[in-house]
TrEMBL record:
GO molecular function: ATP binding; carboxy-lyase activity
Protein name, UniProt field: Uncharacterized protein
InterPro entries according to UniProt: GHMP_kinase_C_sf (IPR036554), Mev_decarb (IPR005935), MVD-like_N (IPR053859), Mvd1_C (IPR041431), Ribosomal_Su5_D2-typ_SF (IPR020568), Ribsml_uS5_D2-typ_fold_subgr (IPR014721)
Keywords on record: ATP-binding, Lipid biosynthesis, Lipid metabolism, Lyase, Nucleotide-binding
Amino acid sequence: EKIEKVSFTWQTPSNIALVKYWGKSDPQLPKNASISFTLNNCHTRTTIGFSKQESKACADFDLFFEGKEKEEFKPKIADFFKRVQIYCPYVLDYKMIISSTNSFPHSSGIASSASGLSAIAMCLMSLEQALNPSLTAAFIIKKASFLARLGSGSASRSIEGPLVVWGEHPAIVGSSDVFGIQFPYKVHAVFENYQDAILLVDKGEKQVSSTLGHNLMHDHPYAENRFVQANENVSKMSEILQKGALKAFVNLVESEALALHAMMLTSTPYFILMKPNTLEIIQKIWEFRVAENSNICFTLDAGANVHILYPFNEKEKINRFIESELAQYCQNKQYILDVVGHGAKKG
Ligand code: PMV
């Protein structure tokens, strides 16, 4: 099949880890399994226009972000193409015009690498399928996650939803270090339409890039224990999700967030990524949980922003609480209300 000119558009979401990935070996293989909720409203929408040209030694592309050419984002994408070109040799045969927009504010401290790279991976797979129409949908999803992983580990968890496991784990049938899979067991109804409010505490540049962060685990005194703990937590989380054990969910999710930050507090060099307002928010969440007998809980990425997770049936009460009491701790009172989603969407 010969294709001269074609373009594909995909919208792929961000995700939030319940059990965290922190530590990897080459080429982007995780030191422990992780599991995440796929988000819905926080997403990247990417169109890639492919025009056939004489084969090049490395990928040839232009990059537009929010309508403007973005030279500063190009090296990361160029690295990504270098890593995937042996799996997708056709990237060398096309000039690519990549145009992306994010649904969330740029530099909000919300990781855009997961949504950004998974969207590019889906566009590549659409071209691959156009070149080879016999590919199955299951293969396309799996390979897209495989490719996304090579760009950013957590991006492997942004293709499907609502729950994705990445990393080989004995308790998760079909799990793999090289791609994410949909959580393979029936999830209890309390986790349907689970809510995630992202409180933008600090919109500044990330203090610790994730590449640097993962490398901190190489000579980390607690690394081995952390990897064991995370894998045990994936087993526990699997049980919790199936049983609908909300109290245990709250404890495990918060413990995971703090364990991630504990790794950064105890690495060489060390980092404190939480801000005073991160702690204020956590304190308020804990008070609210007791006072309202709520199942509200928090989690954190490698930064100061707080993700607040809560069941759908507490949505109204907790959204009011966020607006009236927590928004004041956010930069410009900014927060984003999101809900678990279903992964990549075409067009
Ligand atoms: O995908 P990366 O390399 O940006 O790493 C992401 C790591 C955390 O967001 C901190 C945890 C996770 O599992 O998503």
